[in-house]
## 1
Amino acid sequence: MSDTTIQHHVESRDVTFRVHRFNPQVDSKPYFDDYTIKLEKGITVLRALNYIKEHVDSTVTFRAFCQAGICGSCAMRINGISKLACTTQVWDELDRSRETGIIRIEPLRNLPLIKDLVVEMDPLVGKMKKHSNWVDSRMPEDEWGKKEFLISEKEFLTYDKATDCILCASCVSECTILRAHQEYVSPAVLLKSYRMNVDSRDGIHDQRLAGLVKDHGVWDCTHCYRCQETCVKHIPIMDAIHGIREDAIERRGTKDTSGARHAEAFMDDIAKKGKLVEATLPIRTNGIAWTVKNLLPMAFKMVLKRRTPPPPPLVKASKGIDALRKEFREMTGHVTKDHQKKSGE
Amino acid sequence: MLQVCTDFRLSMKPFDIVIVGGGGAGLYAAMEAMKTNPGLNVAVISKIYPNRSHTSAAQGGANAALANKAKDDTVEMHIFDTIKGSDYLADQDAVEVLCSEAPKIIRELDNMGTPWSRLDDKTIAQRPFGGAGRPRCCYCADKTGHTILQTLYEQCLRKGVFFFNEYFAIDLSVEGSRSRGLIAMNIKTGKIEAFPAKTVIFATGGYSKMYWNRSSNAAGNTGDGQAIAYRAGIPLKDMEFVQFHPTGLRKSGLLVTEGARGEGGYLVNALGERFMARYAPEKMELGPRDLVSRSLETEILEGRGLDSPAGKYLLLDLRHLGADIIKSRLPQIREMCMYFEGVDPIDEPVPVRPTAHYSMGGIDTDNYGRTIMEGVYAAGECGCVSVHGANRLGGNSLLDILVFGRIAGRAAAEESGKFNPSAIPESEVTRIEHDLRGFMQPKGHYERYGALREELGQTLGLNVGIFREASKIRKGIEDIESLTERFSHVRVFDTGDIYNTNLLQALELKNMLDLAATVAAGALAREESRGSHTRNDFPVRDDKKWHKHTIYTYEEGHPRIGFKPVTMGRYELQERTY
């Protein structure tokens, strides 16, 4: 084993990397290769993979560039979670692993696989283009360079965190909606869209927003928070998604999609009764025609199984509804005030 | 869109501009070219997705005399600081362009959406930086390069630049003294493709990665553009000047920024001494970058370093600052030490050693980015105008790529109509295909590129590093020659076409070997000490003999050295003291 030793003066141990392999030229389906090497504490997963490529099996294929956590190339799934290999310590992963001494390395999900750990990034770039993920400056190009925009530190702070995004696509890989619909706009693109929309230099806010509220857009998100939990730069991505939704309802009302109408119906029910009136929720969200066409068979099944929701007149207001209504008014009052403050700036 | 592009190339109608490299310089060039003439076909060819480029790693900022922070700052002062910093090897007319364009370029980036940090009066924020007389470094927190790169990429997408992402540039197709275009490999398919082009702009970044794990650079900063241009007959300039940063992490060479010492960190040797007292008793840890680097190296050479299998090192001790200060003011540095060294600076000193991080040399260009070959340009760290001379100032590297990327983009856009290149012959493509297959043939005796790469970094660090002297440099040159010979036996074990990083890394090593030969040859030739180039056997600056640029031309596999005068202006030669 001596030739597979990097360093050996501090704590060291044998670690097995179970690496996802697939070369479409020769393999009919993916498989795993195990590489066991002796490592010193303090080594990152990327350094270990580099070592495997240089000394054990040079055909193992992955992306890596800056090796310092800023370029976003080496995002992959390590023990099931999407993250950067270059900022992940092997020892931490050994603690997390379900199988003693084994670290599982797989490619990102929700993007087409090219080889081993490399996935196609073009779909993400395509969505960035589709949603105009750039500042379309209010200043004509021939005026550029002559004077600065005056921007408050406060405005800078509204997009500061969002500009930390390195497009590593970890959030894309973890997104539960993308798993169901590849067309979904994806968390990273929503984050970037939000960042552009709150920038006072940008001149196409309404047009960008109109694109985001269409099918497979911002209303498809189910608030699972996986994107935010896994973000390698700790960006509150869900705040951006909520920000776009609030903006959309404020400027466009709830006409755009079932998602917006669903949210509105929810709010109404909570305000009036403190709970949902489930029987009419689909009608208010998607209209009567859609409901009859799509949900009637299910309604019959529910009747057979005696799982029908109570008819609307029988839904009584919850206990303590007065206190709840008061609290509700207070909460929505805060939101309205926030909006007034924002638009007043 | 890609489809349009492919058809377009099949008809063999040349691109107006092909830009090699998608970092700050390449993207600025692409955007400016499209701005100059929206009807042009501009293609960016990059071996990685452009938003991954190493521009993203620049944290500090870009210098510009906006006078937002210090009202009395002037372009004139910026010019002087830059020339003095360069140890008077910079061309003064080029520095004038750099510094007078600076305020305009920073405002332009603001106008297109770069998120600059702001001052109370809502103008772009500026902070002090090493070697600058006024606080003129414009920044976005500690992610300036990253945000500039994102902005430029976004604007290029907006303007409809054709991107060929994950294409590896291999060769320039040359007919006589003219270029026909570029030949590159599509990494995702392994196909060799021709890019006929009226103009080509090289913007592939620096070559400091040849010092391998003694470098702070990204794995891909292997000088591909310089090596391709050099082999195609375009001269390189000032290659011997490589800047070392004092505090790289021991294992990875990654940078611990000057901020750590700015906050009061100590540099300590194996005996527990704050050794900077020996070299800069007043300024201690905050002496100028080249002096501190030389001090660390001296401690190691004289046996006062600590030992580890990853090499000798010294310690950066932050513990006395306390957990609160480290967590609040140096969070990124703490994170880096934990990620990459497995050390929490609150509990343990950080193992450091000097690390190669910037190459002043590059493709020889005029002030418009033009090389001696018609229709071929270079910009950014890949080119050498020269604005940094023998030593670059902090905050001038981002500025360089922006200003000269823009200038080269405009020049190419305006001049592309003049060129009418002939078609790239099919035979060149098949020759390259054949050569690449050669790497994969089974060989009786073979070499692994990984080992050669490591040895190259080692010999460069030992023999052509911070301290240089004739006998050592000769040893370095011998080593590079023997490594080049051994390279012909390298075997690539991945024989597939798709995403063959094994093959790419071998090709990158060849580029580094060719450039390493020029760095070493220049280091031996230049018998003086100037800026980053320190000769123990010639310890002083010798303006009489050596106030000139070194020029390298490729001749039968070896560099031939020539010289070029330095363009002077209103600043006379002076001794450089701080």
## 2
Amino acid sequence: MVFGMKEEVENRKMNVKSFRSFLAQRSATTLVVFIALVVIFSLFTRNHVFIGQRNITALGKLFPDLGIIALGVGMLMISGEFDLSVASVLPFTSYIFAQFMLGGYAPFWALLVAIGIGGMLGLLNGIIVVKTNMPSFIVTLATLMFWRGVLFVWSRMMPLNIRPFVERGSLFEQAMNGTVAEFFPIQTVWFIIFSVVLGIILHFHRFGNWIFATGDNRDAARAMGINTNLVKIICFIIVGLLCGLSGGLQTVRLGSFAATQGIGFELRAIAACVVGGVSLRGGIGAMGGIVLGALTIPILDNGLILMRVPVFGITAFIGLATILFVLLNSYVERKLM
Amino acid sequence: MSNENNNSDLLVKMTNIHKWFGRVYAVRGVDFQVRQGETVGLLGDNGAGKSTLIKILCGYHQAEKGDIIFEGKKVRINSPREAQKLGIETVYQDQALAPNLSIARNVFMGREPVKGMGMLDKKLMDEESMKALSNLGLRLDSPDLPVITLSGGGRQGVAIARALHFKAKLVILDEPTVALSVKEVGEVLEFIKQLRKEGISVVFISHNIYHAFSIAERFVVMARGKVMREVTKEEVTLDKLNELVIESAIVDID
Amino acid sequence: MNTANRNYLKKFMLAQSTSILVVLIILFILFAIYSDYRFIRPANIRSLLTFGAEFSLIFLAIGVLMISGEFDLSIGSLLVFSSYIFLKLFQTGLNPFMAFLITLGVGAFLGLLNALITVKGQIPSFVTTLGMMMFWRGFTLLLSGGATESIDFSAHPLFVSSMTGVIGLYFPVQFIWFVVVAVLLGVLLHYHRFGNWIYATGDNREASRAMGINTNHVKIMCFIMVGILCACAATMQLARVSTFTSRAGEGWELRGVAAAVVGGTSLRGGIGNMGGIFLGAMTIATIDNGLVAMRVPYEWSFVVFGLVILFSVLSSMYLEKRRLSG
């Protein structure tokens, strides 16, 4: 017997145990942070307004803006790449959506075009990253600036009112900004649908395995015949498509396009994934964690506003929270090694 | 479909293989063959051209010139995928494993069994990976563990189990014993013996003559992109083989 | 073989620097023509050298940091925070030179913080510094309430002239400082042992470690250098405009990366030289100024810098490929 030696067995058992506790620790920290935030905000907001029905409903409408994008960014990060350009792809697709409605298209078709353009911008990011083999955060930092600039120039930073084009009570309006069963905001329903679909792809579909393999050890994945470039490009496209949808949802909710949509999303999307336990090196992460992270960051935003923290303070706080979480993740990861 | 080769027990025959990278002439007209069920030790110093030759065989590189005949048919191997389809599996130096993925997912990486619409057949993956591992004599607690929790020998085991499961006809091991402890080397050599019992041909690349000698039946010594010597185990002792390898390296300098 | 390689490398670097110089000259001509020659008026060239030198000062250190294999996206925020510190120190009645020194210390500390989180936490520096970018900007806005405050240096003419004066009737002193720092860093990078360590760290960290180089230490020093130069630029800017604004330094992080990449610094570390970094920084300053001289609306600068980075990324890929294929 090859593994006959007792100490070898002992040794292996310990590794296994420490790995299990690592996994438990990881999802536990996310959950603890989430619950702690909810409790703190519930206790310390005036009249406990945080858990009031009105605020919960408002959150349910608001959080999917970032949440839906974070789902895609999480998958992309597991494949080993980043996308900072979400912060400008979102308003860009919103503008396309508004412009097409202005041009006489039905809202549904305008939305489809916007989502399609989102996918194309994602494809462009993907192709540049894969073909140049350059760090994706630099490439997407450049496209972040570029599309933001194009948008500012094109829209002259003027808002576009879309209320006249989206009939109140129409099926489209209901699907984008309605409530289900008199309580559930439809945006939350969209978020749930996407987290389930993407979760199934990530954990139970062949493609999910390719995503993990690509992020974990690209050379190995390649040697096993996985087209890692294609995997990455598809992940970039998914992020772009989700940006398009999220931009549509946000625009319908606000009733107008605003050039300031999505500002700050570049770090918030990464922050959500990091809080949800996705490794910055790729290859580690789970949809459950990403969902929790995608809830945590908007709750942090919302709770701090309700506690009357100035907007600048919130920016500072999210920056700090990201770094602390990254440090924690990296500490736990290294303890395992 | 030429079948000029009447030597029917030949599994693979590479003839007059040339390969250069820019100005570097890596492989210069090499003939190399492996018979059914044979274990060949491919020896030579770093830069002798062993790895390049083998990467041509497993589809990583394409030869500039030369033919590959596999099971009597002339083939062109353009990608690792195509090599896998022929039944050529490679176990790389760095093991080609994704450390954070589970054992089962690593065994099936890129060739996952699916139930339809691309959904993974996890049950099959778990059972088959454990079966392949136990065939190698490696018993592990669970197919769900990430390979990072395994020892170096265990990881090589997973990589070799992959070849076993996919019914490889030829398994190429590229320096499988490098960076392993003495005990782990023993384990890996056991795995290879297991492969041989299954009737699988093995090419064992190493610059460690001792490891190669204990496992291979025939030795091919390369230096400077050429085959310098070919001997069977009966023809040499360990010392003699050692001498041959050193000699080949020196002779070439002249 | 070694000397041949070396000659080749030298030729390669020379070719790269020459091509940046050519780009810079073409830019000068284009801007001159398309701005109705406003661009080459002496007053504009002087303002180019003044503004340009302030942030280019930081870009020099960014280039060195990138050679060591790390990034710093927080420079704009480090700058605004140092600026606020200087403002508060000065308002207590402290001698401006003393305030300057303390601000430099604060800048060094901010750089150290970035470095420790990156190095000890083993975190990609772009994430650390992206977080810090948000943190220090938000923190400064929180402290200052987003207000603009004017600052009166009239009692300290020596300080003003050493920070933002004019030498030889024309040359802004900032530009002189910029050249001095470039020369110092150039000597450090190319002729000092530490420079060799920087290259080694960025090129192959494991190998440098094996050779006994303390790569963490090298990176920490590079981050601190960036922090100090941020504080330095912050003070110069305050001295020049006599006003503190909490928007100072916005958008510099991207220009910093652009300058280094345009100058031929590899995004993967280990490749780059001070000549290139210097010219890269000047190129970015020229584009910034030229767009203003052409009266291009502000929004266009995003488009232009996005494109500049994309193009330099593409060209650096091309150069790397050519170098590898020999």
